[in-house]
Amino acid sequence: MKKIYLGAFVSIFSVGMSAAQVVESPYAFDDTKIENVAQYPAETATATSKALGVTFWTNDFSTAADWTTDNDGQTAPFGWSIGTNVDSWWAAFSGGINSTSGGEFAEAYNGDYNASDQAIGVTYTMTTTNPIDVVTLGGTDQVTLSFEQFGALFNDGQKVYVSTDGLAWREVFTNDNRTTFVGNNPSAVYGNPEVATANIASAISAANGYDPSQVWIRFEWTSRFPAEVSPGAWTTFGWFIDDVALTTNPDNDITAESSVWGSIGLNYHQIPLSQQTAIEFTTNARNNGLATQTDVQLNVDVTGATTFSGSSPAGVSIAAGDYDSLVLATPFTPSGLGTYDVTWGITQNEVDDVPTDNDNTDITFDVTNFTYARDRGAQEGTFSNQGDEFILGSYYDIFADDVIYSVDVQISSNAVAGSELTARVYSLDPNATTIDALFILEDQSAVHTLVAGDIGSNINLDLIANGIGGFALTAGETYFIAVASDGDGGASDGVTIGTTADGITQTCFLYDGPDDTWYFTLNTPMVRMNLDPASNNVGLDEQSQLFGAELFPNPATDNVSVRYIMGVASEVTIKVTDITGKVVAEFEEGTQAAGTHELNMNTSAFAEGVYYVTIASGNSVLTKKVVKK
């Protein structure tokens, strides 16, 4: 597949879905491995079992002087605070953290989202005042950090670091992998409390050149997108910390982390018969114990429509503190209609002292007749651009030649009847260097006006460029399937779309009209391909329309490309007018065949300002605004 992953950088805006701005530079994942959030082992007054580890240092924030806060020049309540008072503006967090020790706790706060008083460009840190002599207290540098937390992730970065000199800090934990909380997906709220763990051995051990006799621990809060100037990007719903502990690692503990499944990197929860192909499974196995773990294997079991059992190659040994990537030796290929249930996890020769972190989350997907879906099926969240223009969609890989006839879209319950939307199909330009140029509009639906019966329902939108013939899909290509709305200028919520919280970075994208910017989203829009010929009921009146115009780049400097779709062959005229209505350019395109067309205009001679591009064909007229810089 022609995978095109444009670089991701730092920007955010106030919508009901978290997103990060796309820029034109290679994207690289953080080298730091994310530790799993695991169930906290039962604490006892006298921990005697060496195999399960010994807790040798704890802190419950009863002495505020044990911690030094740096709140980046902000005054209370902004930044980190220690005590029993709750500052969070979000009602769900008004009770604070129900920690094991009770009493005092730490909280990070950065203003009230509703008041837009957030501090921008700040980093708040809370660090142990004195270093901890891990070797003397624990007898080893093979240790795990744990702490109880409560809160939810928005666009903020919630991270933990350690240092062995008080100067160089190494990240050992992050909540970046968590589902973003948008106010309507309570499953994204952390448990109260939830215990987070991180094996910090590699970040403090003498074997790696560090000094484990003096270890500092630091909690850090900031936005994940530091270049953003919008206060909304700097919101924290709440992050509470209590009962920090250091525990010697157990003798034997393999942990499954950074697990991935899917075909060519993408996983689908509904797969049409025509697109069945091999599904790969891989996971990182980290040795969080003290002893080398031998014959470590990933095991995958599939039940349901068919049965399957497979493993990664045998003979893998992983030393203490190290990890290895395990890949299923033979991918699983579904073979027919039905539901497939997948359980997968890690085994080793040794008896695991903490077996609860060996398994990955169970998976369920369906092979269908015609539906192709990235989302998990049951709506978990909502995207809303508050009535402003947007385009929202996901990548889909095609493994065999096929035809898409329509697009299914989940409309949320807070959508507004009377709002207008279209479904769109884009191919990808492998030579593109910007995301504006990447997406090539190939087909779309007629404009659909939401009626009362659409609200809270899954609706079907016919593709009309080729009538009931649909749009041909080519094996080996990747397509961007999207829903779009011009909005109503923010007068209402307009079109709102259902989402699920399992987006794969840089495969789901959002265009925000007011920002004129593309972003990648961290949730999956419920926008699905429908390959059923019977799903398309295009009428002759729709086939005759001119539709689907787009301008890029916008704003423009020296050139603007105009893309438009013809339902049937017809003569086309394109005019450019300024804000006074004066025609500054006109193009007679002649008779254009049905399908997608593009006109490249040289705008270097245009004065800076707003212009309107009008595309006319017979009785069909479309007008789009472009800004010249």
Characterise this structure.
The chain has 629 residues and is mainly β. It has four domains: 54-248, Jelly Rolls (Sandwich), CATH 2.60.120.200; 254-368, Immunoglobulins (Immunoglobulin-like), CATH 2.60.40; 372-535, Jelly Rolls (Sandwich), CATH 2.60.120; 549-628, Sandwich (Immunoglobulin-like), CATH 2.60.40.1930. The chain is 3% helix and 42% strand. Strands 1, 23, 26, 27, 28, 31, 33 and 34 form an eight-stranded antiparallel sheet that branches. A hairpin with a 6-residue loop joins strand 37 and strand 38. The longest helix is centred in the N-terminal third of the chain and has 5 residues, at 134-138. It is globular. The two termini are 37 Å apart. Residues 2-51 have low confidence and may be disordered.
Provide tags for this entry.
629 residues; mainly beta; Jelly Rolls; Immunoglobulin-like; eight-stranded antiparallel sheet; six-stranded antiparallel sheet; 4 helices; 43 strands; disordered N terminus
Task: Report the total helices.
Answer: 4
Q: Unreliable segments (pLDDT under 50, ≥5 consecutive)?
A: 2-51
Query: What is the CATH architecture descriptor of the largest domain?
Result: Sandwich
Indicate the structural class.
mainly beta
Distance between the termini: 37 Å
The helical percent reads: under 10%
Q: Provide the residue-averaged pLDDT.
A: 86
